[in-house]
Design goal:
Number of helices: 3
Structural class: alpha+beta
Shape: globular
Number of strands: 11
Radius of gyration: 22 Å
Largest sheet: 6 strands, antiparallel
Length: about 180
């Protein structure tokens, strides 16, 4: 056996071994933020129990407008949500799973036609993903519990964060503070 053949064989065998482990490594990386609780339900690393439903279950639970926005990543028409002009004290929750997402204390009038906030109620209650739709790069905001699309976050908001969480009103429900 010559040296070239030995090196080539070793490299090939090593490559196959690495490729064989790749699917499990990718699966671990993709699900590293999720754990199983005692009942076998998915729980993310931040302790938020995931809500997982089939597409048919979501269609039954949500209105057609909510389904379009929250499950198909659509956008409601600007100025169409009554929550845009809501200035009462309370909490804005995910319309699909009731996870508190935003406080009225962080709501501001952005002039965009959608309810806007400068910070989520808890950072771990929202999840952010890169959105390359519409020929531009934006940051999508999703509910950390049920993965419902809520809107987008931009860096043109007011102090203290400089962020503008521009949310679809149909993705939120308002719970008045009593």
């Amino acid at each position: 056996m010559n040296r070239r053949y030995f090196l080539f064989s070793s490299f090939t065998l090593g490559s196959f071994a690495a490729l064989a482990r790749l699917p499990s490594a990718v699966a671990l990386a993709l699900h590293a933020d999720r754990l199983e609780d005692a009942q076998g339900d998915s729980v993310n690393a931040k302790g938020i129990k995931k809500v997982i439903k089939t597409d048919a279950e979501w269609k039954q639970l949500l209105t057609p407008d909510q389904y379009y926005v929250m499950r198909q990543k659509g956008t409601e028409a600007p100025y169409s949500s009554p929550l845009n002009d809501n200035h009462e004290k309370g909490t804005f929750e995910c319309a699909a799973c009731s996870l508190p997402l935003f406080s009225s204390a962080t709501k501001f009038d952005s002039g965009t036609g959608w309810p806007s906030f400068w910070a989520p109620i808890k950072r771990e209650n929202v999840r952010e993903e890169v959105d390359n739709s519409l020929s531009m790069t934006r940051t999508e905001v999703l509910c950390a519990r049920c993965d419902a699309h809520s809107g987008h976050v931009f860096d043109d908001g007011p102090r203290p964060t400089g962020l503008r969480y521009c949310m679809n009103g149909v993705a939120l429900k308002f719970v008045k503070k009593v």
